[in-house]
């Protein structure tokens, strides 16, 4: 991703730093928790990829 993705860092960091769940709509609390955890993991992975490309 590299330097071209730097403008996205604040948007990726915001859900990572939140202390509340991301708003998702699922029929069960467990489903909402699972979706929230997947979104958080995806944001962490994307941030890690951006920062790794910059460090190299």
Automatic annotation (TrEMBL):
Q: Which domain of life is it from?
A: Bacteria
Q: What is this protein called?
A: Uncharacterized protein
Taxonomy, top ranks, is: Bacteria, Bacillati, Actinomycetota, Actinomycetes, Kitasatosporales
